[in-house]
Amino acid sequence: MNEFDMIVIGSGPSGRRAAVQAAKLGKSVLVVEKGRRVGGVSVHTGTIPSKTLRETVLNLSGWRERGFYGRAYRVKQDIGADDLIVRLRKTLDHEVEVLEHQFNRNAVKTANGEARFVGPHEIEVVAENGETRIFHAAHVLIACGTRPFRPDYVPFDGTSVFDSDEIIELPQLPRSLAVIGAGVIGVEYATIFSALDVSVTLIEPRDSFLDFIDKELIDEFMHELRDRNMRLRFGAAVTSIEAKEGGGVTTTLADGRVVASEMLLFAAGRVGATDRLNLGAVGIATDHRGRIVVDPKTLQTSAPHIYAAGDVIGFPSLASTSMEQGRLAACHAFGLAPPPPPEFFPYGIYSVPEISTVGMTEEEVRKREIPYECGIARFRETSRGHIMGLNTGMMKMIFSTRSRRLLGVHIVGEGATELIHIGQAVLNLKGTIDYFIENTFNYPTLAEAYKIAGLDAWNRMARG
């Protein structure tokens, strides 16, 4: 009963996909999850909760209707923390139920408890009640994910100073919020609370943020944030954070500026949840953030029968790519060669407004010295955008002037993470500007922006 072909440590996106893939290959699989319910960080504190919170905020605040009805428009006048949590719990219950059914349907076994290596093929699982069991497996996948980075100088208390896992259960909505860390998580939460008309200050020690996104898109995004009075404090490190007894938080920056807020969210990075796995027993090392180095083609660690996937191996740390990593690891472990992954995958940031990108940025194209031209479409130029009351939002497309091929698509605005997939398909199929010029798009739709941007680029390209 304790012998398996594969043990998966963690039930997040990479763990669940690996487990199901291995089971479909006829292998016996055990998933070890230290939480009380399966799903991992993605379901319980990360991807699903933050996106559910975003959707709830946009619905209750009337954000999408303000283009027509004004900035003061709201669907619900007094929005409280309970309003946000009700929908969140319903969504999480559904996600867990679907995952449990998927495991049952594929005969994947689960064990609740904390896993640690006691030998190359042996995993000890300690349950919450202290009960200990030893399991043996030919292959192991480490998919334990990450947890928020919590430095000692930050006075986390769960009432006024939160990390990114705690913020989804905040006791009440603040009137003002300081967010430290302008990475993906920090930007998402900062803009979500800003959409609730909370006064938000976003703090980042570097002079720039989201550097992997096309700079023109970031300029557009920053303009919109400033337009709704979000304060951006870039280029100065945090020197101290003080949570006052009577309430409120004071954050002092290296340049002398002081940010006073009712609550503070510290979202400056995450660390691999690997410290209690006893990786030394199998000779696997981690970096300073607890992440594991793997062969990018096979996902194998320094121990060939042990794999790692998902956030614990670092960039790109997306649920979508983590799923494919888990599937790839399971296939490789049991001798099945999956087709090579597509060259380009989309990146989605669920901020308000959304940002999504696929392919090369303009900066990358210039660095490679590829002759190119860009096309721009504003959502307000489309009939659907006008119907929706959109005053902002843009799509940028980059084409090679030599081959006419699409090189990159970058979108900021409503529905960006859905719209990007048209560009992704054309990019991976090596399509050209002719696709967008010659094809018919549903009217009225935001997808029309592809044709507008394509024609804009075509008009700029020299033709003989």
CATH topology assignment of the largest domain: FAD/NAD(P)-binding domain
Architecture of the largest domain, according to CATH? 3-Layer(bba) Sandwich
CATH class call of the largest domain: Alpha Beta
Counting structural domains, the number is 3
Helix content: 25-40%
Pfam families: Pyr_redox_2, Pyr_redox_dim
Subcellular location: Cytoplasm
EC number: 1.6.1.1
Family: Belongs to the class-I pyridine nucleotide-disulfide oxidoreductase family.
Supply database-style keywords:
NAD(P)+ transhydrogenase (Si-specific) activity, single chain, about 475 residues, about 30% helix, alpha/beta, FAD/NAD(P)-binding domain, five-stranded parallel beta sheet, 3 domains, 13 helices
